[in-house]
Amino acid sequence: MKRSIGAALRIPYGHLPKLWGINHSTYNSLWTTASRKMSGTKRPGDGLGPKAGEKRWKRKKTAQEAESSLRSTGSHEEILLEDVRFLLKTSLEPGFDYSQSQASTPQQFSQVQLSISMLSSTGDGLAVSQDGTRVYVVPFTVPGDVVVAKVVKNFPSHSMTDLVEVKEPSKDRDDDLVFCKYFGRCSGCQFQMLSGDYQLQHKHKVIAKAMQNFSNLDQTLVPPVGEVMPSPLLQGYRTKLTPHFDGPRRGGFKEGAPVPDIGFQLKGRSFVLDIEDCPIGTDAVRDGFRSQRDYVKQNLHTFKRGATLLLRESTERTFSSVVSDGGEKTAQCHTDIKTCVSDSKALVTEWVGAAKFSSPAGSFFQNNNSILEKFTTFVQEQLVIPNLPGQDPSESYLIDAYCGSGLFSICCGHGFKGILGVDISSQSIESARQNATENGIYNARFITGNAEAIFADVDFPPEYTSVVIDPPRKGCDELFLSQLLQLGPKRLVYISCNVHTMARDIGWLVRQDLGKNYTIDKIGGFDFFPQTHHVEGYAVLSKNG
Ligand SMILES: C[S@@+](CC[C@H](N)C(=O)[O-])C[C@H]1O[C@@H](n2cnc3c(N)ncnc32)[C@H](O)[C@@H]1O
After folding, report:
1. Which of 89, 130, 248, 483 has the CA that lies 20 to 30 A from 278?
2. Which sign, positive or negative, has the C-alpha torsion 148, 152, 154, 160?
3. Catalytic residues
């Protein structure tokens, strides 16, 4: 669909007066905390946190608190600050003390013309002020764009802005690629104006930067980042969406109350943008979105407050045989019927290659089915222990940490002598057990608990053991990582939707034994989330000796 850039990217300024009363204490405190953490780490080129003389901490921290405050959280704010810091460092005079500078803080709501010079790992374009002392963060832009942006919020080192107009487009911008009418306002996608290749190259840089900035490792210990594998589908891939709407503070919706906006967060704001359709979703999920919106409209008075709607695809597969003219069965084929489920407790079914997974609609499952077969095949290959003593893979074992409903145990587990999975969600563990049986994996055990609970249960010989680790965005606890090191399995495959916490955890593992025990064999990614700044990363490690 060809659309004009002005229409795609103009932000509704009429909303501004309504905006600034809302939830800003939370927003501010997030930024302040991130700034403090970053300035607390005292890296070069600094003073980006509180101004000189500002109180940093109320009381002396305990050793444990100090340690955890220095541990990166991999939050959006921290990642952005790292890029802001980098850009300032490269444009400021060496030794420039930012905290002492009264540098160009622009007026709120003033408009500035900017040349975008970098794409941050958070998916925002970054531009440096003419005096080189401030970074402007401009959503929906790409290096090479010359834009007009409106300053929304100032921080010591940078200003958050809204994009007003692209005056001169970058050679890498192609607005004809934009396929959603909400692009430029919805916070879900950042990259629809970029080609798939550009997105992959950017995500490659994001992983490399994460290893540089968040691993705390001598970079000679980090192999070159492998290419980011593309998603077969660039739109229509998401098998789950969770649009939401806000409700009255008390008393619920009255009969005849106006229908609230139902959709996703407006970019840079804490309220909902009304969205009728999301072309990132699969067809079934898009149909479900429309009918759930209608349901809310018709039943608004039954909602006591705002709500999050669940839209999750389920696939019913029927098999049939292809019969030759001679009446012989020559092949088997299947037909899939896809529906959308919105009851979080209802069972949904998903297929990854020939493996069938059932789980409650509200439980975790990877959201881009189109890439999962390629991805799990890759993970399975990485789990093979190189130079296994005796060379017999059927003598090896698999630990599936943060196993969910058993994706890796089932897709990658064939041929292992024993499998042990752990997940904190008892519902997911129940699904993992049933899925394993249904898919002919009879040598797997699954336990409910914190990931480190696995170490009390495991009796696999470490030199024959591979571990796949797939934690939530916040990464692993040090308790888990330290017990993992103690066990010392031969092969580790770390998977993560947050490459920054992945870099932190991998760095921690390698640093603990000064790189003498574990070496990083491979780092790379899969594009699970086209059109967004997110990337699924992996790191493969082997224990030496
Ligand atoms: C990114 S998902 C991966 C699930 C699974 N590997 C898959 O690909 O489908 C992360 C999983 O970690 C689980 N989890 C979160 N915190 C945990 C903890 N402290 N200990 C164990 N599991 C945890 C969640 O329930 C979720 O299933």
Report:
1. 248
2. negative
3. 497, 536
Residue 30 has pLDDT above 50, yes or no: no
Range with lowest mean pLDDT among 16-25, 176-185, 248-257:
16-25
Which atom, in ligand 1's list, is nearest to the CA of 428?
27
Q: What is the pLDDT of residue 71?
A: 76
Report whether residue 428 contacts ligand 1, using a CB cutoff of 6 Å.
yes
Q: Write out the CATH class of domain 214-232+362-543.
A: alpha beta
List pLDDT tens digits, range 444-482. 999 999 999 999 989 999 999 999 999 999 999 999 999
Tens of pLDDT, residue by residue over 227-257, are 999 999 999 999 999 999 999 988 889 988 9
Question: What's the CA gap between 104 and 315, in Å, rounded?
Answer: 56
At residue 486, what is the residue type? Q
Question: Which residue puts its alpha carbon closest to atom 4 of ligand 1?
Answer: 404
Please give the pLDDT value at position 63: 43
Q: Quick check: do 5-178 and 214-232+362-543 share a fold?
A: no
> Using CA atoms, how far apart are residues 361 and 312, in angstroms rounded to an integer?
6
Ligand 1 nearest atom to the CA of residue 471, by list position: 10
> Quick one: tokens of 60?
């002396």
pLDDT digits (tens, 9 = 90+) for 365-387: 999 999 999 999 999 999 999 98
CB 437 within 8 A of CB 368: no
Overall pTM > 0.90: no
Q: Which pLDDT value is given to residue 96?
A: 65
Residue 528 beta carbon below 6 angstroms from any ligand 1 atom = no
Cα 3 to Cα 146: distance, rounded to the nearest angstrom: 19
Q: pLDDT tens digit string along 94-107?
A: 666 655 555 579 99
Q: Which atom of ligand 1 is nearest to the CA of 365?
A: 9
- Alpha-carbon distance of 463 to 15, in angstroms, equals 61
User: Is 402 near ligand 1, meaning CB less than 6 Å away?
Assistant: yes
Residue 316 to residue 230: CA distance in whole angstroms: 26
423 lines ligand 1 (CB under 6 A): yes
ipTM value of the model? 0.99
Q: How confident is the model at residue 22 (pLDDT cuts 50, 70, 90)?
A: very low
At 322 the pLDDT is 83
The three-point CA angle 118-124-127 to 5° equals: 45
Ligand 1: centre distance to CA 470 (Å): 7
Pocket test for ligand 1, best of 352, 364, 422, 502 (most atoms within 8 A of CB): 364
The domains of the chain are located at 5-178, 214-232+362-543, 240-341
Ligand 1 close to Cβ of residue 470 (< 6 A): yes
CATH class entry, domain 5-178: mainly beta
Phi-psi region of 321 (alpha: psi -120 to 50; beta: other; left: phi over 0): beta
* Sheet containing 311-323, strands listed edge to edge, beginning at the edge strand earlier in sequence: 240-241, 311-323, 329-341
